[in-house]
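Reopening closed ticket. The problem is back. First fold of the pair:
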Amino acid sequence: MTTLVVASRPSTIALADEVVFMVDGTIAAAGTHDELVRANDAYRTLISAFEHDRHDGEDRGHH
């Protein structure tokens, strides 16, 4: 069975068997979350930005 999940939380993305990373409507990379973090600079930058935003919200008392 195949399920398509659109997610922005790194913890949700990390659970997927395969992640397809798209840039401007084109598949830029595919693999596991860990593989993409190691091998794809753009994916790593995006995930870091999500984590940074999440931590900023927690610092301001938002969850």
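Second fold of the pair, where the issue appears:
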Amino acid sequence: MKKEFLSVLAQLEREKGLDRSVLIEAIKYALAVAAKKIAKINSPDEEEEIRVEIDPEKGDINVYVGDKEIVSNEFGRIAAQTTRQVIIQKIREAEKDNIYAEYKDKVGSLVAGTVYRMERRAVILDLMGKTEGIIPQSFLSPLDRFRMGERIKAYIYEVKQEKGVQIILSRKHEGLVRKLFDLEVPEIAEGIVEIKAIARDAGERTKIAVASKDEKVDCVGACVGIRGSRVKNVIEELRGEKIDIVRWSDDIKEFIKASLQPAVISMIDLDREAKRARVLVASDQLSLAIGKRGQNVRLASKLVDWIIDVRSRESIEHDKKRLLTLKAVGKKAAEILVDSGYGDLNNLANANPALLAKLKGIGKKKAESIIAEAKKADKNVLKEQRPKPSKDKSQPDSIIEEAKKLAKKNTRQSMFKDKKNNNKG
């Protein structure tokens, strides 16, 4: 019996990954509950008389109620069943505490799991058979399509202890890209190459800025790998998401140029106080710099942590000419307004008067009159853009009028036929 008890303890230690002391405490608690039922103890004061002793080395178990020892044959079927249920419950609680303690410090790291259930609002992963991780629908990349039993990687976003342990995973977080590069690029893991910033549009494109602490190591080349092997592995895990690897620079102009690749930049004008960059490009480079739906400039702006306004010379001149149509705006004022991002009439019409008044050469009164004129001009532009009604008089004004004309025609024809028939008679 003693040998069986010790072997069961050893098996539970291996299978459940629990410490022997935790298991022994669970068994002690269960035996105390069973002894309480045998002795018919209902008062909390009398519970102090129950004592359970277990020798973890020899396997000896002794249960006392006061001075009397309860032997094993006194534990009936109901008491034994109660003991079993309490032990199972305590082991489950200990397992949950163990899982929480293991994963709470892993928030922000990478985990691998197998897809074993796909629900309407989440994907459930089996994490090494120990527990399960949940990827909510909102934390999935638009490109994510999984098969049952498929092994994938995810970012540990949060670990909660509510009604058990909940491990919330993400495939959308930019931290996933960072950790995948940590895994694929030894130079990053060793600290030779550093990831300075990441800007991600999950399912579309990610921009990653890297720098090298060793002049002999090319940071971009290290991340790309031989024939693109390293970056390809990351792209495969992200289901084909595009990745731009950018060389980081402490010179903000150089960093902005690199972040807006593949566009060729003509000039960059910086407002360091506002952290705003006015980027000038040739007209044939404008679409490349801005990107599809503004994605390239948006990600670049997030990567460098500056507001980036990309314009071509032609668009700037066009905006200046349009602003010069306003009576309150002269040449100098037009240049200032365009440089400050107020080239569009709609933006100017909805501008904050106090902020506009702070611009060089623009006072409070002038700001108010510029906004008032911009509102009128913007309304006129909208009116011109509205489709004009057709002036073709040959077409009927409505279906009803057309029907009336047809009815009159039919009436005349029937009257003519009746007259003709009467004449014949």
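Update: turned out to be a display glitch only; the data is intact. The first strand starts at residue 50 and ends at 54. The chain has a mean pLDDT of 83. Please close again.
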